[in-house]
Amino acid sequence: MLQRRSKLIYLLCLFSYALSAIAAKSYYDILQVPKGAPDDQIKRAYRKLALKYHPDKNQGNEEANKKFAEINNAYEVLSDNEKRGIYDRYGEEGLKQHAANGGRGGGGGMNIQDIFSQFFGGGGSMDEEEKIVKGDDVIVELEATLEDLYMGGTMKVWREKNVLKPAPGKRSCNCRNEVYHKQIGPGMFQQMTEQVCEKCPNVKYVREGYEVTVDIEKGMRDGEEVVFYEDGEPIIDGEPGDLKFRVRTAPHDVFRREGDDLHATVTITLVQALVGFEKTIKHLDDHLVEIGSKGIIKPKQVRKFKGEGMPLHLSNKKGDLYITFEVLFPTSLTEDQKTKVKAILG
């Protein structure tokens, strides 16, 4: 009976472990590479994803920060032959046991920033990275309406670029320097270097056009970029550059943006300035803001309406709205009007 109970407990533990293994996302899935991917493919995948989800480019975005940590954890394991072999055979549980037995465990051997800085030039060799040829980035200045920047929206942009297509014939590719020794005399050899190339199917550039949908996020500021990775100019035997849409605020008929604040000018009559008035202004999402006054308004007076400005990017907060009042004075007065004004104000 005791033996059967122990066996049952063992099977339950095994089943629980299997479920957790199925539910967990594999390191290969995180880096978006197949299980048998070679080292250089893993490095390229890490480079692209780490740049995309780096906290400096995703400030305040907790999902991106979590993704960045997952990417570094996966790369730390898959870039280490010993850890990768253990992971492929026994999964994360095997890495934990390996660490408990004195080895280096997955995700615990190196700081995230250390991995990133070593890979991108903060203390490690960049020889491998420098071999990756990359096409030109394409930067497009994109004028977004103030309404889209206030509420969020999308823009359709026509894009034309070079696309690599198959072409007749063969071409030299994957060129590399190979070292060999040439005998120049009895027992004497000279080291020589020769460039060796493979023969690959030929390719050519063809110009193609297509429509790109650009998502404008609420509160984006001038100079912020919407990046389409590897959608820039292609290059033979290398990675394409990136396509970057750099946001600019289009002029607006009513509002002027300064940072996260909005400014507008409203003209009122002299009578309104003296006795007060009721007035609303239509905001960017069509809600009405009450800007009336019961007191005296002086020319060029500025009133602040808290929380009625632009939304802060990746935040629930908003800036403020500043209204400057212009007082419209009459161009002339009759003698009778002058007498009445003196009687009232004199």
Structure description:
With 346 residues, this protein is an alpha+beta fold. It has three domains: 110 residues, DnaJ domain (Helix Hairpins); 112 residues, Urease metallochaperone UreE, N-terminal domain (HSP40/DNAj peptide-binding domain); 77 residues, HSP40/DNAj peptide-binding domain. Helices cover 33% and strands 32% of the residues. It is built from ten helices and eleven strands. The strands form four sheets. Strands 6-7-11-10 form a four-stranded mixed sheet. Strands 1-5-4 form a three-stranded mixed sheet. A two-stranded antiparallel ribbon has the order 2-3. The protein is elongated and about 125 Å long. Its main location: endoplasmic reticulum. Pfam families: DnaJ, DnaJ_C. Keywords: Chaperone, Endoplasmic reticulum, Signal. It is found in: Endoplasmic reticulum.
Give me some keywords for this one:
346 residues, Helix Hairpins, HSP40/DNAj peptide-binding domain, 3 domains, 4-stranded mixed beta sheet, 3-stranded mixed beta sheet, 11 strands, DnaJ_domain_CS, chaperone, endoplasmic reticulum
Short description:
By secondary structure, the protein is of the alpha+beta class. 33% of the residues lie in helices and 32% in strands.
Give the arrangement of secondary structure elements.
Layout (H helix, E strand, L loop, with lengths): L1 H22 L3 H5 L7 H15 L8 H17 L2 H20 L11 H9 L6 H4 L7 E7 L1 H6 L1 E33 L2 E29 L8 E4 L14 E7 L6 E3 L2 E9 H6 L4 E3 L5 E3 L11 E4 L15 E8 L6 H11 L1
Parallel strand pairs: 1-5, 7-11
Antiparallel strand pairs: 2-3, 4-5, 6-7, 8-9, 10-11
